[in-house]
């Protein structure tokens, strides 16, 4: 009896290790039995907005990205029709980047899913389950290369956009690219590429190099960041909308306004909203349900105008109407949408 009880955990452990090994083989960056990684859906859909793990290509074929996909409910008729895509791109914390879980941004994702979008949240190279080197961190705080760093991150986003818009349940155009913090900066870098699949860019508190040397409202290479933005904007033709809070400790209102002025003067389209102080740190404006009432009406209006200005061949999601914001918004630059 004691012997049997002693052997059972060993057997269970062996089976668990076998399953772990099979899973690792299935999603390994470079499979030993094939030249290409296994891409696409991995595992069943969950109950929460049809949540599912996906494996996506990145900017480097050796490091496929892990991603979370959320989808609207199947139509009452039983048809799982094509939906426009939203790609939500996460920020970066150097001290925790390898320990972070899969990006979800539940309330931001749900805002779009409720409006009929398929949402994908890729985990870029150098973060969490995707792992690998942090390819998008080029230079150091004293000598950062914000332009090249943004482009490397944009390579990952571009790969995700192209792969997902080829899926049968996703529209081939009309995609919206959304970014938070460094993900916002990467989304602005992507806008310079004018991908035919992408219709607009949404930037929440975007930038790079915040909290320089551990100090609030200090930015590594502030002038270099503005210079890089100028180059991106010179090429960007897509409409963009930006949200920053007055109490953002990474990228405060003065920097946000300077960045928007730089972007606009270089020919980029920008509608910027400086929001009133939000929570303990306004850098988290995209993180919870309250954000729907703060930035939601402006984003609804922006997306409606974008659709009217650049109609696509596929059916777009319907708006749910504007809600009264609970905080005052101040728009610093609001040119007509391109």
UniProtKB/TrEMBL annotation:
Key words, A-Z = Aminopeptidase, Hydrolase, Protease
Q: What InterPro entries does the record point to?
A: AB_hydrolase_fold (IPR029058), Dienelactn_hydro (IPR002925), FrsA_esterase (IPR050261)
Can you give the residue ranges of the Dienelactone hydrolase domain? 109-291
The answer to whether UniProt assigns keyword Ribonucleoprotein to this entry is no
The GO terms this record gives for MF are: aminopeptidase activity; carboxylic ester hydrolase activity
Query: What Pfam families would the database entry show?
Result: DLH (PF01738)
Q: What's the protein here called?
A: Dipeptidyl aminopeptidase/acylaminoacyl-peptidase-like protein
Q: Which organism is it from?
A: Hyphomicrobium denitrificans (strain ATCC 51888 / DSM 1869 / NCIMB 11706 / TK 0415)
